Amino acid sequence: TRVLVLNGPNLGRLGRRQPEIYGTTTHAELAHRCVEWGLERGLAVEVRQTNHEGVMLDWLGEAADERVPVVLNAAAWTHYSYALYDACAQLEAPLVEVHISQPKDRPEEFRHHSVITPHAVSVVAGHGVEGYRMALDVLVEHLGQ
Ligand code: DQA
Questions:
Q1: Is 100 touching ligand 1 by the criterion CB < 6 Å?
Q2: Does the Cβ of 101 fall within 6 Å of ligand 1?
Q3: 108-138 pLDDT, tens digit each
Q4: Where would I find the beta strands (DSSP E) of the chain?
Q5: For residue 104, how far is its CA from the centre of ligand 1 (angstroms)?
Q6: 25 touches ligand 1 (CB under 6 Å)
Q7: Looking at ligand 1, which atom is closest to the CA of residue 11?
Q8: Which residue, 130, 144, 137, 140, is CA-closest to 25?
Q9: Could you tell me whether strands 70-73 and 2-7 are parallel, antiparallel, or unpaired per DSSP bridges?
Q10: Which of 11, 47, 60, 77 supports an S-S bond with 5, CB 3.0-4.6 Å?
Q11: How far is CA 129 from the centre of its chain?
């Protein structure tokens, strides 16, 4: 089964970006791990990252058209993008929302709301980059049903 792991804005700077919050693993390392975790689970994982909302919308449209399951870290868009809300509503295969930090435990009020959660079968947050492995496990459970 093909799976798209889609990462939104600023996640390309993982490893250098606020390591006290997001850790020291780079996006390239995360992508490599996701591919390996996928292989261990019989999934063909493709990892993409963009800082451009329209690009992310195109990828979600592709996932909808091709009925591909998605692991999505929409980063800051999570909290306010109704365009992403509408794009996620069109997905047919399961969507798992992931965050490296736990947005609900962070001081900024704007992080406490997600437009992705209504469309997700599950949310994995606060487990660092291991959360992506957990998200793939959740997907496997849902795909088996
Ligand atoms: C994030 C949490 C968001 O609030 C933040 O805007 C991000 C990353 C996370 O993975 O913890 O960019 O999605």
A1: yes
A2: yes
A3: 999 999 999 999 999 999 999 999 999 999 9
A4: 2-7, 44-49, 70-73, 95-99, 122-125
A5: 10
A6: no
A7: 12
A8: 130
A9: parallel
A10: 47
A11: 11
pTM check: above 0.95? yes
Catalytic option among 85, 99, 119, 132: 99
Residue 125 CA: which ligand 1 atom is closest? Answer: 11
CA of 75 to the centre of ligand 1 (A): 4
Give me 103's structure tokens: 């947005």
73 is in an annotated binding site: yes
Diameter of the chain measured on Cα atoms = 39
What is the interface pTM, i.e. ipTM, of the complex? 0.99
pLDDT at 145: 62
Examine the residue annotation and report whether 99 is marked as an active-site residue of this protein. Answer: yes
What are the C-alpha distances in Å from 86 to residues 27, 64, 115?
27, 11, 9
Homologous superfamily of 2-139: Dehydroquinase, class II (3.40.50.9100)
Task: Give the pLDDT band of residue 144 (cuts 50, 70, 90).
Answer: confident
Strand positions, DSSP E, 9-143: 44-49, 70-73, 95-99, 122-125
